[in-house]
Every structure is written in C-alpha cells, then in structure tokens.
Amino acid sequence: MTVIANPGKRDRLWRTIVISLPYAWLLLFFLAPFAIVFKISFADPLVAQPPFTPFFDWAADSGDRLLATLDNYRFLLEDKLYWVSYLKSIKIAFVSTLLCLLLGFPMAYAIALTPYPWRNFLLLLVILPFWTSFLLRVYAWMIMLGKQGLINNLLVSSGIVDKPLQLLYTDGAVYLGIVYTYVPFMILPLYATLERLDPDVHEVAADLGAHPLQVFRDITLPLARPGIIAGCLLVFIPALGEYVIPALLGGLDSLMIGRTLYDEFFVNRDWPLASAVAVVLLFILILPIMLFQRMQQEVES
Amino acid sequence: MNTGSGDRTGVAGGACSGTPWRDPKQQPFIEVRSLTKRFGDFTAVNNIDLHIYRGELFTILGGSGCGKSTLLRMLAGFEEPSEGRILIDGLDITDMPPYERPVNMMFQSYAVFPHMTVEQNIAYGLKKEKLPRDTVRQRVKEMLELVQLPELARRKPQQLSGGQQQRVALARALIKRPKVLLLDEPLAALDKKLREQTQFELMNLQDQLGITFVVVTHDQEEAMTLATRIAVMRAGSFVQIGTPSEVYEFPRNLYVADFFGSINIFDATVISWENQDITVELDGTGTRIQTRHPKTLASGSRCQVGIRPEKVLISKKPPEGAGQTVTRGVVQDLAYYGNRSIYRVRSEAGRVIQVSAQNYQRSAELLLEWDDEVFLSWDSSCSVVMTE
User: Fold this and answer.
1) Do A211 and B98 touch (CB under 8 A)?
2) Reported CATH class of domain A78-300
C-alpha cells in the first residue's frame, strides 16, 4: 500500500496556482502598466525618445539624482482646463448613469416578468447592438442628428420646427450617445437580480397592506440593490473616461477628460502631464468601486 | 393509512362553538356566491357557493390543479373572479385590492422578506397601518412570544430553519389581527415530525385567537386533523363539504372515499330503497347488504358499496350476531405494523379485500398466517353505498 504523501499539501499547491493566475494577470496587465504611467507622471517632458526625463539621473555629479517632480500635478491643480474637464466628465457620467438607470430599470423588470420564449428574444434585442461596431453606431447617430439628418428632416417636414435644430455637437448628443451605448450594461445586471426575486414576496407585501408603490419601495428596490449598484458602476466607470462619443457627437464645450487626455498625449506630446491626468482619473474611479465593495460587505454581513 | 381518524375529530375547532353550519339561522362569516374563475378556455373554479362560519378552521382539500389555490387567491385578492361575489362579515370585498382586505395570507413558500430581520418582517404589516412605534414594538413582542421566537428577533431569514421561517410567516400574517387568515399548504414544506408538532400549534393558536382560518392543502391527513369542516374539491367544484368524520364515514362518492384512506369497493345492484333504508346485492356472490343511504335510488340501478378496512373483523371462527355481512376467504398477504396488521384476503368470490386489524393480543407468533382460512365480517350499517 502506498500512501499519498500529504494530499493536503498538493491541494494547497493547486489552490495557490489557481488563485495566483488572476493575480498574475492583474499584476502583468494592470499593475505594471499603471506603475509605468505612475512613474512617467513624475517626469518632465522632453523632445526625445522617450519624450520624458528619467526618474533617476545616475550620471548626475551633484548627488541629487532623483529627478522626480510634482510639477505635473501642480499644473493640473493650477490650470482651470483640467478642473473643468474632470467636473464635466463626472457630471456627464453621473447624469448618463442616472438616465440609464431610469430607462434600464423598467426595461429589465419588464424582461424579468416576461414569460420564457419571449424573454430570451427580448434579451437578444438588448445585446444585439453589440454585434455591430461601436464606432459605426456612433457614426450612424451623427448622420441621424445632423442638420440634414433623419430627425431634423422629420421635424421640418412635419412642421414642428421651421429650420433644422442644432442637435449634433451638443451635450445632449453626448448624453444620447452614452445612454444609447451603455444602457445594456445597466439592463443585464439589473435583469439578473430582478429575475431571481421571489414573486411571492411582492404579494406578501401587498397582502400586508402595502400599495403598489410601497411594495416597490420596500421590497423590489432594496432587493434589486446589488443589481442597481453593479449596473451603475458598469455605466459610470466607462462613461467617465469616454473619449469617442464626446469627440464625435459633442461640441467644443463638451470637453471630457478622455478628450483632454488624448490631446495631451497625441497633440501636445506631453506624456508626463497626460500620465498625471490618467492617474488622477484612476483615483476618481477607485472611489466608487471602494464604496461599492463596502456596500456589498454590509449586505453580506 | 388513516386508521382511527374518527377519534381525532373532537380535537379541532375549539374557537368555533358547536356546529353553526347545521343552524340555518346562523349568518355565515365568509360568503362565496357563485364564484367562477376562468383562465382563457380553462375554468379553474366553477360556480362555487360556500359558507364559512366565524371561528371555523375550514380546510379546502384537493389534488393539484383542482382550483383550490385559485379559490384561496381570490379570497386574498390576487386573482380577480370572472363571476360571483365574496363577502366577509357582510362586507363585499370582491373588488377590493389585496392591501385593503381584512384578510391575511400565509404563503406556501413562506416568502419571508430576505432583507429584513425577523422583527422587521413581523412588524411590516403594522407599519403600513402607521401605528405609533411603541404600539408596533409591543405587538411585535407579543407576537414573537406567541410563535416562540423571541430570542431570534434580530436574525435574518437566511439564518433560520424551515420551521422557524414558517413561524415568522405565520406571525407576520397574524399581527394585523385579520378577520380571516388564509393558509396555503401551511405544513407542506416541513418534515414529518415538525409537521405534526406544528399542526397542533396551529390549532391551539387558532383556538386562542378565534380568527377564522381557511386552509388549502392536498394532504388528507393534515385536513383531517386540523379542520372543523373539509371541502373536497375536484376540477373546480366541491365534491363534498362536511366534518372530517362525515367525509370519512359518509363519503358521497368514490372520489371522496378513495381520497381519505383506503376502502374496499364492491359493485352492486340496488334491490330496494325506502325512507333511507337501502338493500343492495353484491355482484358475483349475491350477498345482500342492508344499510342506510340518504338519496332515493331506483331498484335495479347500479351502485358501489364501500367498506373501510378497519371496519372489517377477521377471525378463524365464524362470527356471531345479527346484522353482519360475512364472507369467507384465504389470507393472501399480510403486513405487520406492530400496533396493527394489514391483511389482504382473497374471498370465495375471488375478490381481494383489505382488512386492518388492531393487534390487541400480545404474541410473538403471528395470530394469522398466510393461506389461513378466515371469516371476514362487518356490521352491515358500516357499508357505504355510492353511485358515482
């Protein structure tokens, strides 16, 4: 008889390997690039290859070898442009998230209450837009919203307005584009949560004297909370850093941080400043994620 | 299966004094008038009339799909009747939404609110009534004691056992002091031991509170032990309404007879009927049986005669005494249960008759063995004549 040498040890080894895989992935493709960007954000721009100063100057005679500087962050604070675009981004992302929630909740609930063969069809409709290129869909909106676009033509020909409205290159077009693009990310997690709700729970509340609105407030909404939070994060986070939609649909004043970041990198070629912009953006994003995690822990405990 | 159910009937229904359903002057507490519910082409509940009296523990019994749950949901207000009216204590509630009705329901799934503590679950109905906080707290406390859960007040439902969840659901439904409590399969989700215990608790609770209970169940034993009266439902209509002993001892037809316990059935022909005294002749043997039957039956019409296994005496010697139906047979099968034995006896006419005998003698040997020749006898008045 052979005894397997310490099977617990082998299990533990496997567990370590399995757990370390996603960590390795995150380390390699998230933390390492972030470390590089973080490092660059403390440099000065240079017309060179690479276009920034190194972190340490090993050849310096003075002994003052650390070349890192906080100038970029100081600049972010001083120049109003960055403040404006951060705030504008937060505002647009926040309002879009709210609109997605208002639009997505009834849709997700309706899908969850639809009987089966039809439910799959409705879910298919929600994810159908993903089958065409995102860029193409934004271009389609440009065509529809333009001065000679479908919407203006309809409005003019039906006599609702005298001359075409300025629809494209406005904040409204940006909201429209973001809500249109991201509403499926709101619907899907909401649907997943609402679908699992026990219908009896709603009837019990009604039976105990709750009006339909009270049932919604006391039962449906709190039980849908994990879905609401997940959906809002899935919309808010990419919307905050959105570059394409404001660039194509937005006007000159629809300046979002993604656009600013792009301009710093590719137009001004100021990599260190762009890195600083990215680092600050990341910290703005981490905040809601941490809030979400704390809420999850509260729910679980 | 259901031996000795006759002696259980006295236990239930303390809150309901006497037999109000036999008194024509009594006002029914719940009055259902020609109630019908159709789902498309399907008629779930078909033109039902029902009177339930104050303090009753009324059980609606039937197999799945018989319409019993639809009827209950119409009482609660979750289904709108296609036709008919529902009155409770003289008030027509047919068009009232669930949240305005003076009834509360305990769901089969219990459906305890998962995001609320036990306390919050129980308090929910009172909070909707906007009662002062102190009153709510006081009544929740009383209710927790009533269902024996005070130490679990701050637990979340996920930390409760099935039996505890059932109590929370019950307390939550009772706290508004409804005129009628509707219970949908209240014990179905509990294991056997817990079910028996909870059954008696439910009865005691109903006794204490005097609330009228309407229970829907598919379990005939549950119905028997709980109910003041049972309505046997089938395909949207009531087959028979009566006390547990009435439906057991005087089943109106084969369906009811078969639903409650076991019964031996013989095909027979009516010889005569006069003033509820009936004489029938069994097919094959020609044995004549005299018993009572409430409804007129024409001579020569076909019927069935039923006899419960526990009413049949089995013996090796021929029985004595008048008014007995006697037949001979051979023991074909027997099952020993300790307190009683079940015999399957093949009679001279070739029928298999089931007998349930109390083992009132103490013996390590079997009193009767396979292939023993035996006499079967029963009091003729114990035979039930049925026509469907």
Assistant:
1) no
2) mainly alpha
